Amino acid sequence: MTALRRSKRERIVKTARLDPYSYGPRPSRLIYHRPHFYSSVKTTESEAVIINNNGSFAAYSRSVTPNVITSLKYEAWKWTGASRPAGFHGPWPPSSATELMNVDIKLENLGTKREQNDFLKKHGDLIKDECLGKYCWQQSNFSSEFYCQREYDGTAICDHTISEWKEGCADWQVRFEVRPVPGFGYGLYSKWKWTKGDILGAYLGEMIPEKPENTDYCHEVKIGPMFGKTKAMVGYVDAEKYGNYARFCNHSCENNAIVTEARVGNERILALRAIKHIAVGEQICIDYGSDYFQGRQCLCGKQGCKYPKAIELAPVTIEAS
Ligand SMILES: C[S@@+](CC[C@H](N)C(=O)[O-])C[C@H]1O[C@@H](n2cnc3c(N)ncnc32)[C@H](O)[C@@H]1O
């Protein structure tokens, strides 16, 4: 009876894997699910200040349990006062974050052959920019019909969209785990063996026009159709109150991942990408950059730690009135 039941369960697992939206083979060594806090949709905050033995300030750790989202949160009214990015056509503010961040690379939308050639000359770098669609873990079982396929002058243009990513992000616990890390709040751990270059998912949050003063969860992203252009306007993805698993990445001076602006089909995204091989059970860490460590100490504990002491804050001059 038990054997019968087990084989039925195995059959179900096999059937699930044949589905193009399933997640490929199982990890070689499974870390079993433990109950953890990140299934809650309630926003809570906890704060901890770590003080050195001599009383000096060592680190400040703040942890917010965010509302779990599976696509960028966007409220059009917040963009009413923001200026329209160059090359952006249509009603302002746009009705979705995708519209706001869209990369207008479809050559067939660019009029005559001559206009297309002019565009290629001007934006060659944009067209060559690699689509990350096929590197996403959510797509590991996808059939070739989802791969970049259209060619123009030898350059690939593709039909990928991030909708499949969003679907995959909803089931992130298959390959990631959020665990408490003493002194850091929480951290993101891998349940999968990743290869350098793999896309671990999208960095999701709320799309807002201005960077809030007190957030440690904000990444800049270009908006409007001019992908990769220096003049492109920027917005911010803030994952403090609304986010997905990617917002739990702590900083390490030997980081194994980056949050990078990328293209999937015609859509711009912030992607979490492995820059080294990542083993099962390893913590996934990014580099917050030196600005973040102004007045803060890094707790990564790596031998080559770049910020073992808090970087001195520039003195602030207060003028007497
Ligand atoms: C983007 S969040 C990372 C997720 C966070 N640990 C949490 O539980 O929500 C950034 C916060 O993590 C903590 N943190 C991450 N890396 C750190 C490091 N290397 N040293 C000190 N604090 C760090 C800091 O409290 C920082 O404000």
Provide the succession of SSEs: HEEEHHEEHEEEEEEEEEEE
Choose one word for the global shape: globular
CATH structural fold name: Beta-clip-like
Distance between the termini: 85 Å
- What is the quaternary state of this protein? single chain
Poorly predicted regions are 1-63, 139-147, 149-156, 316-321
| Average pLDDT level | 69
CATH superfamily: SET domain
Helix- and strand-based class? alpha+beta
Query: Helical content, roughly?
Result: 10-25%
Provide a count of the helices: 4
Output the radius of gyration.
22 Å
Strand order of the largest sheet: 8-15-14
Bound molecules: S-adenosylmethionine
Domains, number: 1
CATH-scheme architecture: Beta Complex
* Beta content: 15-25%
Would you count the extended β strands for me? Answer: 16
Major beta sheet summary: 3 strands, antiparallel
Can you walk me through this structure?
The chain is α+β, with helices and mostly antiparallel strands and 321 residues long. The protein has one domain (40-293): Beta-clip-like. It contains 4 helices and 16 strands. It has helices at 2-18, 97-101, 113-128, 163-170; strands spanning 44-51, 57-65, 67-68, 150-152, 155-157, 176-181, 185-190, 199-202, 206-208, 218-223, 233-238, 242-243, 250-251, 257-264, 267-274, 285-286. Strands 8-15-14 form a 3-stranded antiparallel beta sheet, with helices on one face. Strand 14 and strand 15 (267-274) form a beta hairpin. The longest helix is centred in the N-terminal third of the chain and has 17 residues, at 2-18. The protein is globular. The model is unreliable at 1-63, 139-147, 149-156 and 316-321 (pLDDT under 50). The chain binds S-adenosylmethionine (SAM). Residues 59, 61-63, 184-187, 216-217, 247-248, 250-251, 298-300 line the site of S-adenosylmethionine. The site of S-adenosylmethionine has 17 residues, from strand 2, strand 7 and strand 13.
